[in-house]
Amino acid sequence: AQGLAWSPGGDEVWFAASDTGADRALRATSLAGKQRVLVRAPAELTLQDVAPDGRILFTRESWRAGIAALPPRESRVRDLSWLDYSLVRDMSADGRTVLFTEGGRGGGSRYGVYLRGTDGSPAVRLGDGDAAALSPDGKWAITVSVGVPQQLVLQPTGAGRAKPLTNDAINHLRVRWFADGSRIAFAGNLPGRGVQIFVQDLAGGAPRAITPEGAGVEFAVSPDGKAMVALDGERR
Predict the structure, then answer these.
(1) Opening angle at CA 130, ends 43 and 104, nearest 5
(2) Of 160, 151, 152, whose CA–CA distance to 126 is shortest?
(3) Which pTM value belongs to this model?
């Protein structure tokens, strides 16, 4: 959602939002939560204000994002952008591969997960969703599904089929792989609860929360896998 304002009569809140994909429609919701669409267009709309006579002031925006990389043993930065909104999520340990999401119009309504060599070779689409983390051996990518709650999917980077990694009530957000490849850590929240960081064994078993609520989604696992650093909601 981007931008909001009261309706002229004060009985609705008007805003711009998208269910999936980049295009945002202008919408209205009653105070009871009943929604209706005011304006739909193939564009990224942001509501700025509403006049007392009902005129709507909004902007039509065009956002782009790209990837710049300095590959191993090279002195020049290379543009690895693929479509209109390339968001890098992870890089292989040898610096030769990047995992990224196409989160704009080119990625589709369910977004797209891609793998690309830092030598500039063509990107390979792995599947739908939001890219999250590349396994230490480079054979697997963890992706986040589109929906609520967001679930984790294990996607092969080569031949093979994707398989669900989680199916629970946790809304999964950021993911990090442990160096041994046998465990992952992820930030997520249960319904009505704050964000926590969990650890899960890929061989099975339930995830285990290792922080209190409010840990935030930014975190990193130490190289030896024995410690973790995280930012809370106040950036501490």
Answers:
(1) 20
(2) 160
(3) 0.82
Angle at 108 between CA 38 and CA 88, to 5 degrees: 115
Q: What is the pLDDT of residue 106?
A: 85
When pLDDT is cut at 50, 70 and 90, the band that residue 233 belongs to is confident
| Torsion angle defined by CA atoms of residues 167, 220, 197 and 168, in that order, rounded to the nearest 10 degrees | 0
Q: Where are the beta strands (DSSP E) in 92-182?
A: 97-102, 112-117, 124-128, 130-134, 140-144, 152-156, 163-164, 171-177
Could you tell me if 168 and 199 are in contact, meaning their C-beta atoms sit under 8 angstroms apart?
A: no
The owner of tokens 């840990």 is 215
Length of the chain, in residues: 236
Q: Residue range 126-145: average pLDDT?
A: 96
Closest listed residue to residue 189, CA positions, set 170, 211, 208: 170
pLDDT in tens, 14-39: 999 988 777 899 999 999 999 999 99
For residue 57, list its beta bridge partners. 49
